[in-house]
Design brief:
The complex is a heterodimer of chains A (625) and B (350).
Chain A: H1 9-15, E1 18-19, E2 22-30, H2 35-49, E3 52-58, E4 73-81, E5 94-97, H3 100-106, E6 115-119, H4 125-130, E7 148-152, H5 154-161, H6 170-174, H7 177-188, H8 194-203, H9 208-227, E8 235-236, E9 247-253, H10 254-269, E10 273-277, H11 284-291, E11 298-302, H12 306-319, E12 322-327, H13 329-345, E13 349-355, H14 372-377, E14 387-389, H15 395-410, E15 413-419, H16 420-424, E16 426-430, E17 476-478, H17 493-508, E18 519-520, E19 525-532, H18 536-548, E20 553-558, E21 560-562, H19 568-572, E22 575-582, H20 587-595, E23 600-604, H21 613-624
Parallel strand pairs in A: 1-8, 2-5, 5-6, 6-7, 10-11, 10-12, 12-13, 13-15, 14-15, 19-20, 19-22, 22-23
Antiparallel strand pairs in A: 2-4, 3-4, 9-16, 14-21, 18-20
Helix pairs in contact in A: 2-7, 2-8, 5-7, 5-9, 7-9, 8-9, 10-11, 10-15, 12-13, 18-21
Chain B: H1 39-53, E1 60-64, E2 79-82, H2 88-98, E3 103-109, H3 110-116, H4 118-127, E4 132-137, H5 172-178, E5 183-188, H6 192-204, E6 209-214, H7 226-229, H8 234-237, E7 238-240, E8 248-249, E9 255-260, E10 263-268, H9 290-296, E11 305-312, H10 318-332, H11 337-341, E12 346-349
Parallel strand pairs in B: 1-2, 1-3, 3-4, 4-6, 5-6, 7-11
Antiparallel strand pairs in B: 5-11, 8-9, 9-10
The chains are: A alpha/beta (625), B alpha/beta (350).
Amino acid sequence: MAEPPASDSSAINTEMARLMDSVVVRFSGDSGDGMQLTGDQFTNTSAVLGNDISTFPDFPAEIRAPAGTLAGLSGFQVNLAASDIYTAGDAPQVLVAMNPAALAANLSDLEPGGVVIVNEDAFTRNNLRKAGFESSPLDDESYLQGYEVHRVPLTSMTRAALDDLDELSNQQKDLCKNAFALGLAFWLFDRPMETTLAFYQEKFAKRPQVVKANTRALKAGYAYGETTEAFQSRMSVPTRTDDVPPGTYRRITGNEAVVLGLVTAAQKANKTLFYGSYPITPASPILEGLAALKRFDVRTFQAEDEIAAIGSVIGASFAGALSVTASSGPGVSLKSEGINLAIVMELPLVVVDVQRGGPSTGLPTKTEQADLLSVLYGRNGESPIPVIAAATAAECFDMAIEACRIAIRHMTPIFLLTDGYLANSSEPWLLPDLELIEPIEVEHRTDPNGYQPYLRDEATLARPWVLPGTPGLEHRVGGLGKQDVTGNVSYDPQDNEHMIKTRAEKVARVADYLPPLEVNGPDQGDLLIIGWGGTYGAIRAAVEHSQSEGRSVASCHLRHLNPLPKDLGKILSRYRQVLVPELNMGQLSMLLQARYPVRVVGLNKVQGQPFRIREIVSKINDILT
Amino acid sequence: MTDTVEPPVIKPPAGEPSPLTRKDFVSDQEVRWCPGCGDYAILAQMQKILAEIGVPREQTVFVSGIGCSSRFPYYMDTYGIHSIHGRAPTLATGIKAVNPDLTVWVITGDGDGLSIGGNHLLHCMRRNVDVKVILFNNRVYGLTKGQYSPTSLPGHRTKSTPMGSIDYPLNPISVAIGAEATFVARTQDTNTKHLQETLRRAAAHRGTAFVEIFQNCVVYNPTAWDHTTDSSVRDDNIVYLEEGKPLVFGRDSDKGIRVNGMIPEVIDVDSNGAANEGLAVHQESLDNSSYAYMLSRMQHPEFPLPFGVLRCVDRPAYTDMLVDQVQQSIDSSDADLNALLHSSDTWVVE
């Protein structure tokens, strides 16, 4: 190693900073190493600085799988850019690997020539064995050939930086190595430390020694970058200069956006928000988020099981609250019977399905889009229900409001589909002007004159929402076959068919209220890509890439999956071919082919991972050549 | 009924007499239970006591699951939900969480409440949700035509147990006490006065009031409760619980219950009271539930079956506390939605 640089080295290094339009960084380590927090802080700082950002955390289902193993790895990928980006990036250019397992699992994803920062201290014989190495890959030139590798003794340098903090054990000191790594990353990417320093002050306010330790480790990491000459150059992603809509932004994940959207919807409807749910990955953060918002008259109920959760929500809706439950695949299956009761009782409620890899327990922390057909058709009898899906993390806010609006306007339960990717990934969100969000109109009939429980609105076919406590409008509703208008129990064959057709028509009429679809690209041509849900970013980026290469490709992303928008058929007919990329085995493809005279090509992936842009680009190229 | 044993009398609450009558609670729906079914008596007494208590019809909600008894809400001219099998307590919880002013009754049976819905009943009681749970126990599945239930006795022969049931039955009041219910009582469909009084007590309780009603299924299990209804034997088979009174029973009030260690035993008592030392004296409000549990374990034919309120204690109701927490938050902090949206690191694009 060369002499320690002079004090003006940072100026020199800054001059050498390599300007990049975008960079993808992946942090990977044990699930106890604090990788999510490290990634979060790195992202926040970059977002506040003015980059476009998109993140994708990837973590195991086990809370603390054995340390040092592949099974216990937790990763966080962030894409920083000077212009509009739609995904967290296909492949990282920088990998921070906290142990041998992290290197083994992620190196093949790294772009050729990419930068690898490893915690050299973690390459012990034991850890190497756990990661499946017979000898240290750091000593194997062929293994790391083509990459810029930096061996940093993160653990020992962190300990050295915290040496005199006697009140902390070595174990506690070692927990700060992620702060050291973050400091180094801040230096490497020319990022200020203020946001994170303020975060430590707030998060550990009651433990000043922890604030001190993390602060010191962070600064030590930064200083390490500054004072060694190990790094050939710093990297810098300039602030966005493209046409960004003006306004105040924050970073948001899909689950956070659902929480804020539901609270906003309740305020716009002037209603109590009742949220009944049972903890399940990856939907639990919605329960936790809402439980902290009681001041907005949010009443959360952690039920004894998924069935109790949907039951409580039906009761709450009957009593007059804006009522919501959320779950993921296995829990949604358990709610099926309750959802059918809500369909027959014609009560408004929202079921958020944060889809995860299935079937059965499947891949709890990974993403998939394979619940579409089950939420449409996975219940007994004819049970029509509106289904909508959010395309991006930030859009979960708007779609949560949309779900509440449809539920109340049409007196129906509704599914809002998100997925594990949207739930946990984050992106910048232009904060909305709350004044511009339309109120959600609610009417509770109080006039007993001519009242019948299933008297229907002419336009929507919705029945009146009458609250218990209203004198003179006492009525009984239930799951048995019934007569329209009176709601009386009826086993009459004609009544039964009439009710089934009426409920279907009621849901079909939701389409009368949908905005026209937007097509991204030429309004006719060689290829139309139809997408839904969290694949939006990858599809959009792929389509723009193909368009820039001169291909006649357009995309159209569906937010409303039942009923489908009325203009979809015409749009489909204007392109020679239709491609539907889905993280399932072809569920929307099947629906489209059943409903429209169209043949579609599917691009299907069920690996628990989102699409990479290049996978879609490659499929486009296959189709158009 | 003989004149030797009178169930305890509980007077209606003082105040203005209710302007309501039983008819106000009768809906326009045709009642469709089998002729002779015990449900008719329960329905009639429920309508009667609600009128007497004077809770407005619109403030009352009946929620049921599935089964013969679960048709009950259709026949009450109040708000009502006939929900799905076993899930009534969950809907009731949601209703009370949103509007704690409503009086909510859950109507269930031994199959609905203790088999398919056992989990919900358990959690409703331990949370002390402010609902009244009325469990019609006829020890058989009626609506599905006669299979054995979780309260059927061992050896019970039904179409699904042709060689006799090998399931060990649950005792509903033991389950309720074990699940920390704050009000636990037992009564009988045909014991009109006692039924009324028990329902009145349940109505007055804040928190989960669990009432087991011995109910006769005339078609599939008509002899299940003969020992508590047949006038020639019933007084020897029931001990009426009265607060502060000794546990005395029998046609001639000549027997009593003494607690020997942790174990109850039947002893002869002197009607003059001279030999009554050591008799257990009923206390429904003991914080420790061991005594109530011991009573619940007294089973026919070794013991008389306890009728009345086994346990009645005060504990805050879940739904009241839920609403209190929300109210406290509303009162103590500023609910600014725009500030909430901004509650994260933000940046401005000009």
